[in-house]
Design goal:
The complex is a heterodimer of chains A (117) and B (175).
Chain A lengths: L1 E7 L2 E11 L4 H12 L3 E6 L3 E7 L3 H5 L2 H9 L4 E14 L24
Antiparallel strand pairs in A: 2-4, 2-5, 3-4
Helix pairs in contact in A: 1-3
Chain B lengths: L3 E6 L2 H4 L7 H12 L4 E4 L7 H10 L5 E5 L17 H8 L1 E10 L4 E10 L2 E6 L3 H16 L4 H13 L7 E4 L1
Parallel strand pairs in B: 1-2, 1-3, 3-6
Antiparallel strand pairs in B: 4-5, 5-6
Helix pairs in contact in B: 2-5, 3-4, 5-6
Classes of the chains: A alpha+beta (117), B alpha/beta (175).
Chain lengths: 117, 175
Amino acid sequence: MTERIIAYVDKTVVKITGLKIKGMKPVELEKALQEKLGRPARVIGVTSSSLQLDVYGLEPEAILGDEQGIITAISLTEGVTAAEVARIDTAEKALEADVDLLAQGPVSACPKERWLP
Amino acid sequence: MIQKAVVIPTGNEIMTGVVLDTNSPAILEIILEKYPQALVIRAQPAADETEEIIRVLKLYGDSDLIVLIGGSGGGKAYDPSLADDVTHFALEKVLADRQVQEIYGYNGHLWSRLIIGKLGQTIVANVPGPFVEAVAAAGVIVRGLAQGLDLSAISRQTAQAVLAQYPLGGQVRCL
């Protein structure tokens, strides 16, 4: 049996590039960002050179406006080093879609592309 | 009664050490709190590949409980720079008596697809990768099994526990 739930949580998706990452503890980074931003953040993707985060309840403009502060906070986390080219690559607010359009078939891929520009 | 439990982290970032696996120790602790007599194993991480996850899963087919961590969302289908989230696809292929809870963001992005079911006599479940969600989900699964709840009830409670980790009290709508 499959049940579907839609969570209405305001978030901005942030991607930061130009990092060197090895042995990072995501929960420590999330704590550092929470202290810096005053808002919760969740690590959703990590490579050896980039981070992708969900930041809850904060507009993209506010995030972009504090780019250096955020990168500094991240680089103070064990396992993360910010190179000189470190920057916020993207900060985009998740857009609301018509829930009636939610895919009804089996999940073969994320349905995001059906709604977002 | 769980005599043998296995925790399987998934993801290339875990395998390569880019991210330190702090989820597995926390989930091992949760299992041991309820089943102190059990043999509890943290398996080698599995790569983000469906067949590889199934192969690792079957290595531990003599267990009472297997918990897989990560790979529960839309992943690469949402953004090419994200991981290939395929754990839920692997479980869909092999588990019987499956109970599935799908959590979407309001942008239609699949945030988490939580599956619990059986592989032979082994109960298998996945939990999301983010630490707070993984711990919340694992706690519900282990406590639910200890209380003798059926998989359907555990499945629903697991989804609610994960939802409760999303900040700011966002509205949640069940379809």
